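Example 9 (inverse folding). The structure is encoded as follows.
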């Protein structure tokens, strides 16, 4: 009898030993890391303020009046962005998509609303959707930018405006009454007073909900004729309306013009501007034509196709927050924008969550829960600073390291606003309103200031870790231990598994992390933050680094 008991015990021990050896995940090491929009690290910049690559295009259309502080063109352009892509600036930050402000031709004149003269440097005052503004560059510049970015594995997201034209100026007439409304001004009391109105005074609102036939504006026809391209533009419009069967209503003209940038240059996505100020159904129409154009470009350029991802559409539904799940509440009506074409929405709530939630775990677990339930199959774009948010998370730039850690390690996709990574000043003397958020990129600080260099390095380490591991943004989060704070993220598809272990607020010097749920004994793992390598023993990774953060990945 004792013999049989002994044999039984040996079998149990052997089974336990076998299970111990199998702890950890089968992480993919020989499979290329897939690009996942839900986990993307997106860099957002103002085209005019980032980098001046061609000083010869700094002044056009006699835009020479003295403006209010930071309310005129400063010289940034498409070539300047391309130069930084080529230099590896974005790759070093772990950026895998770049979104920049609209580059279509802006109104030629200026406005003065009591803040000094303003020109359309920001790109949101469209005059002609079919042309690029020469201050930003040429179509050849754009073509080259997309090709250079794609070779670096970086996607390009343009900014699309369907809601409004540019303001009327002495040089720029108001569009015809069947195209736009010039009142009433939005009061935001309910759905109607948010959609069928003008955002501000003198910003003509496109009648996006109308379906009746409209002629092209006379001033646009005259412009095209003077530029020698009227016949070609009309030929393309006729072909578009013949193929689609859409009525020649205002929104469909603009949809055609915006999707041309997809079929001609192969851009990968659009950030849709002022979404809640348009009828929601137009975005379903827009994504249909975006996907058609994207497919056409891929068929014509098979050697340039990056992957099988669909076209990306992220919406600016002002004040949408992740806590709303799939819905935005107007008060009298709830709208599901995800059902109307959007892959993702900008998450205006993130900066508040990052500020008010006392622990990383509270922030991370909240986002994990919603993204893997109500928002499963969809995405959010988190940000802490933006071009029109006067209450950023860290306006005084006193919490730069914390900001980077929370933004780049939170579930969801991340939006790094230009200068977040270099503590660009957000308080500029003499500015009014949004202009203070839109200063020129502080390249000199990056070159000469040691504190700036250390902040940039922090963003680079976290950004590259995020880029290399879709589990950070799109995976499932689980806390391993509260003290010290250690968590895991796992992202898995049919033929790919990615998993990491992260420790935050650790002690400087020696530290131990429990990693047996992710890594196996004998695995060689790397701390991507310090570069330290360690072999897992008894389910523990022991490290001695000078940092209080650890980013563990399997050594490939």
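The amino acid assigned to each position is listed next.
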């Amino acid at each position: 009898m004792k013999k049989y008991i002994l044999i039984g015990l040996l079998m149990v021990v052997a089974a336990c030993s076998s299970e111990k050896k199998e702890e950890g995940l089968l992480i993919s090491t020989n499979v290329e890391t897939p690009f996942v929009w839900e986990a993307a690290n997106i860099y957002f910049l103002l085209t005019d303020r980032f980098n001046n690559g061609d000083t010869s295009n700094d002044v056009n259309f006699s835009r020479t009046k003295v403006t209010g502080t930071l309310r005129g063109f400063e010289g940034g352009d498409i070539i300047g962005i391309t130069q930084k892509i080529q230099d590896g600036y974005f790759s070093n930050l772990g950026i895998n998509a770049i979104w920049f402000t609209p580059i279509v031709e802006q109104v030629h004149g200026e406005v003065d609303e009591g803040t000094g003269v303003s020109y359309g440097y920001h790109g949101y005052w469209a005059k002609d959707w079919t042309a690029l503004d020469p201050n930003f560059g040429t179509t050849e510049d754009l073509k080259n930018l997309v090709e250079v970015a794609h070779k670096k594995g970086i996607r390009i997201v343009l900014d699309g405006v369907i809601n409004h034209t540019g303001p009327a100026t002495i040089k720029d007439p108001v569009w015809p009454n069947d195209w736009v409304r010039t009142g009433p001004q939005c009061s935001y009391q309910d759905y109607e007073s948010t959609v069928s109105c003008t955002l501000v005074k003198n910003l003509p609102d496109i009648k996006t909900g109308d379906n009746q036939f409209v002629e092209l504006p006379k001033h646009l026809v005259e412009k095209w004729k003077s530029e020698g391209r009227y016949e070609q533009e009309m030929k393309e419009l006729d072909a578009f309306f013949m193929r689609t069967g859409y009525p020649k209503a205002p929104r469909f003209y603009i949809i055609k013009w915006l999707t041309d940038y997809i079929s001609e240059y192969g851009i990968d996505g659009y950030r849709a501007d002022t979404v809640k100020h348009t009828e929601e159904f137009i975005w379903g129409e827009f994504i249909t034509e975006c996907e058609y154009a994207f497919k056409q470009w891929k068929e014509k350029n098979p050697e340039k196709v990056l992957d099988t991802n669909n076209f990306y559409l992220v919406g600016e539904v002002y004040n949408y927050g992740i806590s709303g799940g799939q819905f935005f509440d107007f008060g009298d009506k709830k709208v599901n924008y995800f059902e109307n074409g959007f892959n993702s929405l900008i998450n205006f709530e993130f900066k508040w969550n990052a500020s008010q939630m006392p622990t990383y775990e509270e922030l991370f677990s909240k986002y994990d829960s919603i993204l893997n339930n109500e928002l499963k199959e969809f995405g959010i774009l988190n940000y802490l600073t933006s071009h029109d948010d006067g209450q950023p998370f860290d306006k005084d730039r006193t919490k730069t390291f914390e900001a980077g850690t929370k933004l780049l390690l939170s579930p969801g996709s991340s939006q790094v606003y230009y200068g977040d990574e270099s503590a660009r000043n957000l308080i500029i003397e003499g500015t009014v309103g949004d202009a203070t958020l839109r200063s020129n990129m502080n390249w000199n600080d990056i070159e000469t200031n040691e504190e700036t260099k250390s902040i940039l390095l922090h963003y680079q380490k976290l950004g590259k870790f995020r880029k290399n591991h879709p589990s950070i943004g799109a995976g499932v989060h689980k806390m391993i231990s509260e003290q010290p704070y250690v968590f895991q993220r796992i992202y898995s598809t049919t033929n790919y598994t990615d998993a990491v272990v992260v420790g935050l607020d650790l002690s400087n010097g020696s530290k131990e992390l429990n990693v047996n749920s992710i890594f196996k004994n004998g695995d060689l793992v790397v701390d991507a933050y310090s570069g330290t390598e360690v072999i897992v023993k008894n389910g523990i990774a022991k490290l001695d680094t000078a940092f209080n953060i650890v980013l563990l990945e399997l050594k490939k």
